[in-house]
Design goal:
Blueprint: H1 4-20, H2 26-33, H3 39-51, E1 55-56, E2 65-66, H4 68-76, H5 85-97, H6 102-117, E3 121-124, E4 133-142, E5 145-152, E6 157-163, H7 170-184, H8 197-202, H9 205-222, E7 228-231, H10 243-253, H11 256-263, E8 269-273, E9 285-293, E10 296-304, H12 310-332
Antiparallel strand pairs: 1-2, 3-7, 3-10, 4-5, 5-6, 8-9, 9-10
Helix pairs in contact: 1-2, 2-3, 5-6, 5-12, 6-12, 7-9
């Protein structure tokens, strides 16, 4: 546990380095923190922080820069935070005035989060297993192929192609959809409701086979891969001066499973730094938070260098997640 003054020196060191990207001098810390001590005293504190692994001096006569342990100590001791007024206005505008189906809303959310934070952002959609079916549409796309489009009560639109065992006509596809609609609409997408057996037995073979294919398509759609929306990758050149680091992070963003591992945390707000992310010595930090929708969870997060503005990033992620969860809840009522 650091004593109060040394904690203030550490806070000023981190915040000044976040602002400038340069080693921070003792004089800059005195000015930034408003300390009533001399620069010599602060130099002594910085030396002590260096011994504790919280600061490092790049070269003789230079100031100090914070280590990943310093960033961890800093974020663990951040006080309450609020989103800036202009950023709050953008969030309020999106979630109160723009009415979008969920997929488009999540895409707009990722764009907004990048706009507010100037960081690459990721929004992971919740699963659809427990979302109830609002409407069902089936389109014939080949002699024996159909496209099933399911619209859920949570505003999700999921699609799945299927192959029917026999050739079918558009009229037979329509008949199969009508046969199933009453039994499936209102049910959870992943609940596997049984098609009405008597009606199936009375139907012609093409209608019956089409109906069974539709049910299979709905099952596949309910267990399909997670939807993910990434925004702001083009801003990375302004965040990482080291080209090799930027290349490695671009490679991570191209691997969906890796991004989900980084952002889809168990619960609450998560701040992960450096080696905590199991990506070696990469200069990387992730701020993320989960949200709930129909019993399924999604995640919202930003990715950046460890020298990111944590106060702003955390407040943006938390406020956007709160508004998103509230908006989804309203759509489901």
């Amino acid at each position: 546990m650091l004593e109060d003054r040394r904690l203030e020196v550490l806070r000023a060191l981190v915040e000044e380095h976040i602002k400038t990207g340069e080693p921070v001098s003792s004089r800059a810390i005195v000015a930034q923190a408003g300390l009533s001590v001399s620069a010599a005293t602060v130099r002594s504190d910085l030396a002590a922080l260096e011994e504790e692994g919280l600061a490092v001096q790049p070269h003789t006569s230079a100031g100090r820069i914070p280590t990943s342990s310093a960033y961890r100590y800093y974020v663990d001791h951040l006080g309450p935070r609020r989103l800036r007024q202009n950023a709050q206005a953008k969030v309020t505008n999106l979630f109160s005035e723009v009415h979008l189906e969920l997929t488009k809303l999540l895409k707009a959310t990722s764009d907004l989060l990048t706009d507010i934070t100037d960081l690459p952002s990721v929004v992971i959609a919740p699963g659809v297993t427990h979302d109830r079916l609002r409407s069902l549409h089936t389109v014939q796309v080949g002699t024996d192929q159909i496209l099933v489009i399911a619209v859920t009560e949570g505003g999700r639109v999921v699609q799945q192609r299927g192959r029917v065992r026999v050739p079918v006509t558009p009229r037979e596809v329509e008949a199969a959809q009508g046969l199933l609609a009453e039994a499936l609409v209102g049910e959870e997408l992943g609940s596997h409701p049984e098609p009405p057996k008597e009606k199936l037995q009375a139907a012609s073979e093409p209608v019956r086979e089409t109906a069974l294919t539709i049910v299979d398509c709905l099952h596949l759609a309910s267990t399909a891969g997670t939807e993910m929306f990434v925004a702001g990758a083009a801003r990375m050149a302004n965040l990482w001066e080291d080209l090799s680091s930027m290349q490695r992070i671009l490679e991570i963003l191209e691997r969906e499973a890796e991004v989900i591992r980084l952002v889809a945390t168990a619960s609450g707000t998560s701040i992960q730094l450096g080696s905590e992310l199991n990506e070696g010595d990469l200069d990387l930090a992730v701020v993320s938070k989960t949200y709930d929708a129909s019993g399924e969870s999604g995640s919202v997060g930003v990715i950046g260098p460890m020298r990111m503005n944590y106060r702003h990033a955390i407040s943006a992620v938390e406020e956007i997640t709160r508004e998103l969860e509230e908006r989804i809840g309203q759509q489901q009522d």
